[in-house]
Amino acid sequence: MRITKIRLRECARAALEQRRGYSVAVEKGQGFVPGVRLTAHKGAKEIKVAVRTSSDREIGLTRDRKGNWRTIPKVAMVVVAVPAIDDPASVEVFGFDPKVLKREFDAALAAQLKRYPDLPHKVPIFVSLDKVSGKAKSGLKTKSEWREVLLLNSVGPRGDATVGFIERVKREFAELTGVDVSKVTVDFHINA
Description:
Blueprint: H1 5-19, E1 23-26, E2 37-42, E3 45-53, E4 58-61, E5 77-83, E6 90-96, H2 98-115, E7 125-128, E8 146-151, H3 161-177
Parallel strand pairs: 3-5
Antiparallel strand pairs: 1-2, 2-3, 4-7, 5-6, 6-8
């Protein structure tokens, strides 16, 4: 069974919310695929997050016309969601410091440029999460700050506007009362 990128992005968001204690909002913007840019809140702290997905457990980054990496310099965290290597019903989610990713991808780019000096900036550079024999730059998952494994069926579709509303209410109530958002629960009742 192939896991779609949409489902992988949902798992990335769920890992941040359910396991890492963040309240998450999807950033909207021209050219943004829903779920690839997030704003994550934990207490008073707010960070920008980029989400990357891969069905083959290789992460790709692209560069702009000047040769600078796109997206990762603009965020405080990069979250990568991939199918679990040993369980088709699970997803692995990794959290990376963008500076660490930049170093790893700079090294991978240097190796590519050594082989192909005229490599166009539009060509994505890939680094494997898993150690691959014979590949100098692989095993990226060992550089992650954290790892979470989620059962795919434990993560529901997030297209529901109600979920975003509830997360916003929790975050705003936490800010208003000065408590950590992870301590806030919301329970709505309709009296007929």
